[in-house]
Amino acid sequence: MATLPQLIEEDIRQVDEVLAEFVNQADLLGALIIDKGGFLITHQGNTGDLDLTTIGALASGAFMASQTIAGLVNEKNFNSTFQQGEKFSLYILEVDSECLLAVIFCSATGLGLVKYYGNTAAAAIARQLGLARERNPAGGFDLSMMNLANPGELFRKKI
Amino acid sequence: MAIINQATKELQVKIVYYGPAMGGKTTNLVQVHDHVQTNAGNKGKLVSLATSSDRTLFFDFLPIEAMTIKGFKTKFQLYTVPGQVIYNTTRQLVLRGVDGIVFVADSQFEKMPENVESFQNLVDNLTAQRMSLSEIPYVLQYNKRDLPNAAPMEYMDFLLNNREVQVPSFAGTAHKCEGVFESLNMITRMLLQKFINQSMPQYA
User: Fold this and answer.
1) Chain A window 11-40: which residues touch B at a Cβ cutoff of 8 Å?
2) ipTM > 0.85 (yes/no)
3) How do the pLDDT tens digits run along chain B, 204 residues long?
4) What is the set of domains in chain A, with CATH numbers?
5) Which residues of B touch A38 (CB under 8 A)?
6) Cβ-nearest to A146 among B49, B186, B192
7) pTM for this prediction
């Protein structure tokens, strides 16, 4: 199964720069990079106290559902989805085979503007992810310090 | 698969509760949500995409931040799938990127065919995504042990836990929160152990 490449700080910094520029250009509330499995990778914008973890999981599910519908109607790929609200709207764009760009913006903002800058941002992010894939991942993640002898240590029930 | 973000120092892990319809998957998540000890702000909202009759339509979702491992915040995302046979497409979607599975079986004798069918469906859906139960850690929870027509644990092991490698199985009465944390902690332990054995995770 194809996966996200290992992302180092430089990757996240580059992606954040692209997102920040996109947020400014299109006057967005927020822009999120989400793994198609539902994980939030990084985000930019003035999202305040929005629950971005849950938004990421739901946006991924919504997008993947739309892709399945594409298959059912013999369309090769729906590469974006758009939900319009009274105050805010959501646009989700496929970055590459593993990643999505979800955008929250004021409904007064034109979708065309968001799409125009969104395509540029998605391409730049895809390039960065491509570089990460080509890079030989350095350094591992050693969990061996963790005491796994006691599984009750992770989640405890309230008494 | 798990996301290890070196920049934000986060480890994100996805656990999916799988099993036949009305077996207690959503109840497991509700009990975890209601009873887990966490620091303030470390437990997210339980989101349910359900029908008007409270049957899971797409998935339930519960994010929990468990602990810090060597400076990395560990975030768990718990999902359920809809158990009804007709919703197989949504089950496949939810399985994407799964790190560990809790299979919640219904202990009632008359539910055994549904348990076996659902387990085979899990195998098939993982295969469709080029994954397999030999690679993905999973545990079995035999739920509804409080019902008078519950089959013996040994019989359920014979039906569901007879693969080459036997996995941990737990008696559960999810609505009383019995077996819920035992299952969750075991699957967590198993999947973290897998990361340790791999020593170099493939994702970040």
Assistant:
1) 11-13, 35-40
2) no
3) 677 776 777 788 899 999 999 999 999 999 999 998 877 777 788 888 877 677 787 888 999 887 666 667 788 999 999 988 888 988 999 999 899 999 999 999 999 999 999 999 999 999 998 999 998 999 999 999 999 999 999 999 999 999 989 999 999 999 999 999 999 999 998 888 776 666 444 444
4) 11-135 (3.30.450.30)
5) 14, 61, 77, 79, 96-97
6) B192
7) 0.84
